[in-house]
């Protein structure tokens, strides 16, 4: 049972299954990219892990709101998927250096906001990839929870390092996010400018297969269970 403040109406044109794919992704992206990361105006965004459920949401939403978006992914196929959903350039992190690519694409300036699901040894490289006054927002630690940074770079370029987890936040906070999503994002969903990306739907009885697919990392977008 969900608190009423956190609930949102079914967006026009979406099925119940599609709507079920929205909350975790859209609450997370809005809270971290647009509230904590303060992405605005003509600023640019780099999404690490762009082919994930969170990743394709961040790409679509930032693109729909007028931002240039770049994204990293682990194969040529996933990079093309990121571009399909609105990334200006998919960057294959197994073959390319995201620092060099994003600096080249921004004329040496760097990106304004990075949404990071990796952390670890990505962090010092991400600080190099940021523009002056840039913001690094960490939401997962797939690459490790510890990082060594150059504090002088943070000071000289006025960089911000932040992050969050949504699950432990109070109902009132999540309710305010829901209000903002309803105002700013639900109209984009109704207009078809952003949409849930569902890789595969499994019967609930096959949850173990769904977990295996998730662990394989071969999916693009959300993996759903249906009862």
Task: Outline the secondary-structure elements.
Blueprint: H1 16-20, H2 23-36, E1 44-47, H3 53-64, E2 68-73, H4 76-84, E3 89-92, H5 98-105, E4 111-116, H6 122-129, E5 130-138, H7 151-156, E6 160-163, H8 171-184, H9 186-190, E7 198-203, H10 207-216, E8 222-226
Parallel strand pairs: 1-2, 1-4, 2-3, 4-5, 5-6, 7-8
Helix pairs in contact: 2-3, 2-8, 5-6
Describe this entry's structure for a reader:
- With 227 residues, this protein is of the alpha/beta class.
- The chain has a domain at 18-163: NAD(P)-binding Rossmann-like Domain (Rossmann fold, 3-Layer(aba) Sandwich), CATH 3.40.50.
- It has 10 helices and 8 strands.
- It has helices at 16-20, 23-36, 53-64, 76-84, 98-105, 122-129, 151-156, 171-184, 186-190, 207-216; strands spanning 44-47, 68-73, 89-92, 111-116, 130-138, 160-163, 198-203, 222-226.
- The protein has a 6-stranded parallel beta sheet, sandwiched between helices.
- The model has no long low-confidence stretch (mean pLDDT 96).
Largest sheet geometry: 6 strands, parallel
- Summing up helix and strand content along with how strands pair, one would put the structural category as alpha/beta
Name the average pLDDT: 96
Q: Give the N-terminus to C-terminus distance in angstroms.
A: 16 Å
Q: Please tell me what the overall shape is.
A: globular
Radius of gyration: 17 Å
Number of helices: 10
If you consult CATH, what is the topology of the domain at 18-163?
Rossmann fold
- Strand order of the main beta sheet, please? 3-2-1-4-5-6
The CATH first-level class of the domain at 18-163 comes to Alpha Beta
How much of the sequence lies in strands comes to 15-25%
Count the strands?
8
- Gross CATH architecture of the domain at 18-163: 3-Layer(aba) Sandwich
Q: Order of SSEs, N→C?
A: HHEHEHEHEHEHEHHEHE
Name the CATH homologous superfamily of the domain at 18-163: NAD(P)-binding Rossmann-like Domain
Low-confidence stretches: none
């Amino acid at each position: 049972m969900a608190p009423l403040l956190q609930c949102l109406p079914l967006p026009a044109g979406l099925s119940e299954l599609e709507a079920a794919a929205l909350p975790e992704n859209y609450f997370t992206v809005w809270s971290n990219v647009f509230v904590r990361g303060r992405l605005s105006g003509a600023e640019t965004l780099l999404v690490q892990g762009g082919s994930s459920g969170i990743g394709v949401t961040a790409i679509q939403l930032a693109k729909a709101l007028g931002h240039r978006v770049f994204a990293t992914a682990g194969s040529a196929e996933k990079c093309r998927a990121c571009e399909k959903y609105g990334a200006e350039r998919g960057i294959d992190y197994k073959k390319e250096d995201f620092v060099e690519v994003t600096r080249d694409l921004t004329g040496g300036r760097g990106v304004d906001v990075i949404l990071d699901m990796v952390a670890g040894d990505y962090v010092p490289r991400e600080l190099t990839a940021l523009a002056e006054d840039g913001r690094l927002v960490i939401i997962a630690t797939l690459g490790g929870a510890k990082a060594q940074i150059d504090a002088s770079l943070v000071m000289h370029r006025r960089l911000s390092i932040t992050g969050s987890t949504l699950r432990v936040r109070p109902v009132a906070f999540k309710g305010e996010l829901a209000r903002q999503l309803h105002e700013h994002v639900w109209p984009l969903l109704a207009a078809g400018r952003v949409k849930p990306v569902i890789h595969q739907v499994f019967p609930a009885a096959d949850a173990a297969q769904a977990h295996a697919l998730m662990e394989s990392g071969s999916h693009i977008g959300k993996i759903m269970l249906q009862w």
